[in-house]
Write a structure and sequence with these properties.
Blueprint: E1 13-16, E2 20-24, E3 34-38, H1 50-71, E4 75-79, E5 95-100
Length: about 120
């Protein structure tokens, strides 16, 4: 799609493979926040062919040590927002790889469970 900002991202490419590229997020939530983008335009990761899905998550694994070496985080969150109700705001599938740092939030317990704050505690 000509008007999709993820179809032709204008930013540093961290790594790539046969079906995906990894770039830094333009609005990072932490230093090193990256996105894995399938090269084919689809709306969510559920729309990817099996080989594309596998390639995207292989690229997540490829960039993790690159981000670890460059930014020295203490952990990572990995996730995808699929659909408006899940918070998706760019209609091109993408996977967030978010480095996390000791003290970046007072209580990180629950990690991605905090997308619904009142249900995060267990």
């Amino acid at each position: 799609m000509a008007d999709c900002l993820f179809c032709r991202p204008q930013r540093e490419i961290i790594a790539r493979n046969e079906a995906a590229i990894a770039v830094y997020d333009s609005f990072p939530v932490s230093p090193g926040h990256a996105l894995v983008l399938p090269q084919r335009h689809v709306v969510t990761i559920w729309d990817l062919e099996d080989a594309e899905y596998d390639a995207c998550f292989r690229l997540v694994r490829t960039i993790q040590p690159i981000l670890a070496a460059r930014f020295s985080p203490h952990g990572f969150n990995v996730g995808a927002n699929c659909g408006e109700a899940a918070g998706q705001s760019v209609w091109h599938a993408h996977i967030h790889v978010i480095p996390r740092y000791q003290g970046d939030t007072p209580n990180p317990r629950g990690g991605v469970r905090h997308v619904i704050p009142l249900k995060a505690k267990y």
